[in-house]
Structures are given as structure tokens and as C-alpha cells.
Amino acid sequence: SVTEEELSAAKKCWRDGVAKLPELRERKHPILPVPGERNIMICSAEPYVNNVPHLGNIIGCVLSGDAFSRYCRLRNYNSVYLCGTDEYGTATENKALEDGVTPQEICDKYYKLHTEIYDWFNISFDRFSRTTSTEHTEIVQDIFWKLYNNGYIIKDWVDQLHCDNCNRILADRFVSGICPLCSYDDARGDQCDGCGKLINAVELINPKCKSCTNIPKVKATQHLFLDLPKLESEFRQHIDKVFDNGIWSQNAKVITNSWIRDGLKPRCITRDLKWGIPVPLEGFTDKVFYVWFEITIGYVSIAATYTKDWEKWWKNPNEVELIHFLGKDNVPFHSVIFPCTLLGANDNFTLISHMSATEFLNYEDTKFSKSRGVGVFGDNAQDTGIPADIFRFYLLFVRPEAQDTAFSWDDFLLKNNSELLNNLGNFINRGLAFVSSSFNGTIQEINLTSEDLQTVALISRELTIYIQNMEQAKLRDSIRNVLSISRLGNEMMQVNKPWVLVEGTPDEKARAGSVVSLAANIAWLIGVLLQPYMPSTSEIICTQLNGNPKNMVIPTQFIPVLKTGHKIGKPTPLFQKIEASLIEKMKKKFQGKQEKVGRNDFLSETLCVKY
């Protein structure tokens, strides 16, 4: 039921109307923080460049960040959305060896491929860069020197695995073995994909060289470490504050707290590799920085490739909110190591305010696997003939926010045909077609009955909850609010039956005009709220309504944006039915197949910074 307070607010807002609606802010690049405004820097986990992202990678980082970024723009927040490819490390070097090319050639190939995939998915970055930029090298080395000069870098000897056959240290992905913590049989030399824990290569049980399968020997080498224990007190003060005041998914809090509870330990930040950012310290110039030290600094360098005034974002902690979107495996690097790095640099860096981490998205009842041909990957999603907006909608609908979820073709069909085609699409097309055919495409005077006012109040309630959910980065909940608004519109049409009223008396015809014109205004609101999820569909809705793009702002209450006398455009169906035969074809195509697997094909299983 609707409260008197809700009815009163609905009545007032309907009366005041669009006059109270601010115009959509024009975005002129480079976007810079504005003192006193809400300045939000949105960063998605940088996808690893050695392979093609699958749908789980896409929802875990770039699509989630894009939906939130689009929402911020519709709220007129001063926001910027940054991302880029993670290009250094053992995975790239190994892939290059496997393919017989240079690491840079691998990076160039896959950067182009990632860019094309994200363009198809309509990901609207303000800047999509890469970590092989000169800006990245300069900023990483500069931050390192600040840490070193401030006393937060220590030297220590490390036992490492050395392959005599390949004559090299087996860092990170160059070695695999049984995890000493969970017994997963293909753990890497820096992290176990089975339990997600960080490990040292020498801890692996039955380790083997990934290139030649030789059993390595232990060899001591000297490395550099970030002195996290020395930073722990200052870090705890910051993390306690943002836990209380920020937007943090529960899994991000739990993972971060587990690191704090165990006590922060020094973390090695160098590797005996060729492909990476050179360590500039004398005695260590034959080493490169560990990818998990330099990659998070990539968010800073990406901003530097976006604007020469990047410090206005990254050295402005009192004016800027930083939010990360990522998979749960990446949490400690972003929630602990990155802020500690910036704190140790002691250069007034902007630190993390919010973090939204997803659980895992599976494919049907198994995991995505490029080598086994299981699941939909970014480069073949477009080959299905299904529009990107439908993939976006479904991935955000099943976004694994609190627990693992799965991409299911049967459920994909159901959501398209029921929620999109029969609910949302049917309501908008029916309402607009009625305005077009019976009222010459012209919005009629809307006279709200008490029942109409209740509908308006209920829609405002859903709108309020939509905003609350989006503010908390609960993206899968907000999309359900949009669908609820559409259902309220459908119910209003069914109850009033304007197709009957239009054939009656002049008063009944006027009532029909009022009903369908109210429906058109509901459609406009849906078009705006749908924009973070289905940007192309949103644009089509607003074009069919012939609305003013400057009114594409999310209001705090449902108001009539389309006034009496407004001429709408030509309505056409928004969605097509997906046939069961197509779904069966897709299941067969992506169910997996036996292929000849290269000796380093394990690299294909993991992407988007290790998840």
C-alpha cells in the first residue's frame, strides 16, 4: 500500500514537473575534479592481455564499472571511468615464447582485440590505456623511489626455483605444482587458483617447469620487499574509516580483514624476469617489478595518459572518491597492497574509498575454459547474432554479487522472452503505438485519478530504491526495480483498457489519451533508468519518444517529462523473441570440445588479473 506521505510527494512532484529537473551535464574532456562537487574516479580491474576475456571476466570488471559509470553521468556526478590492459609479467612472456613472437607483439595483438570486444559491448571508458606506456614506467619508478627514500623498501634473500634446463628462475606462472594449502594440482608459483591464496613457488609440492616439465632446484637470490608491517598502523586507520563510510561489498571486507587479522607481512615486489618495468636501484637492475606491485599503479598512469592534469584526480584525497570494480581474487592487491604503496609514497595520493567485488560467474554447471571450448568469450559473443544489449542485461541481471552465479542459456532465453519482450518491450511498444495510432503521435493532457496517483507513487518508490541500490553498487537489484516499474505500467494499461475507452464517449476517449500519455512518460523514465544496463535500447526508447537528450537525468521522483502536445517519434518493437532452436544451437556450440592443448595452454584458463 502507498502511504499518505508518498501520495503527497507524488502529487507535488507531478505538479512541479520537469521544471525541477536539472539538465544533463555536457561532458567535455578532459574531465577534472570540481571543488565542492561529488568527484568519482571509477576504475575497473585491468584485464590481463594474454588472452580473450570471457563473459565472467567482462561482468567482473569492465561491465560492472561501465554500468556504475553511466549511472553517475545520469546523476550529473563529476565522474571519470578509467581502465587499461595489464601487459607485463610471466603470462605475457610465456605466451610470447609459446607463439614464437615478442612480448610486445602479444600485447599489441591482444590490446587491439580487447578494445574491439569492449567497443562491441558498448563499454564507455573515458580512457582505456595500457601498462606498457612510458607514463606507466615513469610513475611506477617514481613511486618506488619515494617508497625507497621514505624507508619502506627492504632487501632480503629469497629461495627460488631454478630450472637448469631452461637456465632461468621460475617466477610466478613459469612453474606449477600442488598447492600446499588446498592440494589443488595446478597451482601457480605466486597464487593458487583453487583456494585463491598467495603462495611462494618453493612451497609448491612436486613443482615442475611449465616450459620443459623439468624438476627445478632451489636457488637463493636477493630481492626487494615492500615493508607492509611498517605501514600497517596508518593503513588500518584508513581502512577502518572507509569501511565505515564507503561502499564495500561483503566479500571485499572479509578478504581484507583476513589479511589484517593475520598481520601484514613484507611483500616481494621484484622478479627475475625480462619482460617488465626495470628496477632502477643499483644492484637490482637485472630485475623487474612484480606485476602485482606495478599493475595497481597502472590506474595512476592511465589517468596520466588521459590528462596532463592527472594529479588533480590522484593527489586530491579530500575531493575525490575512488571506487574499484573487480573480481574477488583481486581484492587484497587493491584493498591492501595498493593503498599501502600510496601511503608509503607519502605524496598526498587519493586512496580507495569504495570497492565492489564480484564472486565467480560460471558457465552452465562448469567453468569457462578457452582451451576446452567451454563458454562464451568476448570475441564470439557477437557471432551469436544476439545484440550486445541483451548480453549486458543478462550479465548484470545475474551479476554474482553475494555468491557464485552461472550463465545459463535456458535462463537467458527465459529472461529475454519474459522480462524484456513480454514485460518491458510489450509495455513500451503498446503504449507508444497507441499514442501514434489513436492520437496522431501527440501526448494528451494527463488528468491523474486517485488510482493513477497511486501508480505514480509506487513508481516513485521503485525509483527511490533504484537510486539507493545504484548508490551501493547493487547493480543486479536496480535492474529489477526497472522491470517492476514496467510491470506497474502494464498493470495500469490492463486495468484501464484504453483500447476500449478510445471507442467510447469524448470523456472516455480523453481518459484513454490520459492513460497512454502517462504510459509514454513511464516509458521515458524506463528509457533513462535502463541506460546503464542497455545503452542502445535506452537510446532507441528516447528516440521513439522524441525526447530532449538534456532531460536524460535520473530524477528523485517520477515526473512528467513529456508535456501535453509533445510529438513522439515512430514506435517500433524493441526486442525479438529468442527461439529454443537458437538456444540449442548455442549450447552445442559452446559446450566444449577436445582440442590439442599446447604445453602452456594453462594460460588460457585465467584472465582479467587472475580470476
UniProtKB/TrEMBL annotation:
Keyword Transcription regulation among UniProt keywords: no
GO MF, any single term: tRNA binding
Reaction equations catalysed: tRNA(Met) + L-methionine + ATP = L-methionyl-tRNA(Met) + AMP + diphosphate
Pfam families (alphabetical): Anticodon_3 (PF19303), tRNA-synt_1g (PF09334)
GO cellular component: aminoacyl-tRNA synthetase multienzyme complex; cytosol
EC number assigned by the record: 6.1.1.10
Domain Methionyl-tRNA synthetase anticodon-binding: 450-594
Record key words, sorted: Aminoacyl-tRNA synthetase, ATP-binding, Cytoplasm, Ligase, Nucleotide-binding, Protein biosynthesis, RNA-binding, tRNA-binding
This protein's record includes keyword Aminoacyl-tRNA synthetase: yes
Biological process according to GO: methionyl-tRNA aminoacylation
Cell compartment(s), UniProt: Cytoplasm
Organism superkingdom: Eukaryota
PANTHER family: METHIONINE--TRNA LIGASE, METHIONINE--TRNA LIGASE, CYTOPLASMIC
Protein name, UniProt field: Methionine--tRNA ligase, cytoplasmic
Organism: Lottia gigantea
